[in-house]
């Protein structure tokens, strides 16, 4: 494993392995594109999410289904092989985390600061651009946004930029208000 991939969790190890293989083959951009396509497919398809996360499917069923998905999406061999290995090891539920970890490794290589954003609702293109502009100014570097929708936030955003966490969610505000009310005996 290369010295720029200090990873300890399962998803991180898979991401680091794919990163190293793709890097050696000069195919980091291709792997990034394929993982992006898989991420979009997972976001759009409840059936695909169920396939990768549900224990009711056998290793063989998951492997065959994911091999078909990879063929249909024209996913290259290193990425498809990784997904096949994950299916064989019953680790497909970690696929979204592998994608995030791979993106983080790629961002680090490119000198880009990763920003993980949880939003209560999908962001418009204008909101996304403004958020990226503000975060780029705060970080003083290019930003790699990873935006996920978390309806439990009720409203607002939770932003993790490097080691900093900014929570502007309504859920967080309600929790703080509830705690304050308990402290005063209401």
Automatic annotation (TrEMBL):
Domain of life assignment: Bacteria
Q: Coiled-coil regions in this chain?
A: none
> Where is it found, in Gene Ontology cellular component terms?
plasma membrane; proton-transporting ATP synthase complex
InterPro entries xrefs:
ATP_synth_OSCP/delta_N_sf (IPR026015), ATPase_OSCP/d_CS (IPR020781), ATPase_OSCP/dsu (IPR000711)
Q: What does this protein do?
A: F(1)F(0) ATP synthase produces ATP from ADP in the presence of a proton or sodium gradient. F-type ATPases consist of two structural domains, F(1) containing the extramembraneous catalytic core and F(0) containing the membrane proton channel, linked together by a central stalk and a peripheral stalk. During catalysis, ATP synthesis in the catalytic domain of F(1) is coupled via a rotary mechanism of the central stalk subunits to proton translocation. This protein is part of the stalk that links CF(0) to CF(1). It either transmits conformational changes from CF(0) to CF(1) or is implicated in proton conduction.
Question: Gene3D superfamilies recorded for this chain?
Answer: N-terminal domain of the delta subunit of the F1F0-ATP synthase
Question: What protein name does the entry list?
Answer: ATP synthase subunit delta
Q: Which family does it belong to?
A: Belongs to the ATPase delta chain family.
Give me the gene this protein comes from.
atpH
Identify its membrane topology class.
Answer: Peripheral membrane protein
| Keyword terms | ATP synthesis, Cell membrane, CF(1), Hydrogen ion transport, Ion transport, Membrane, Transport
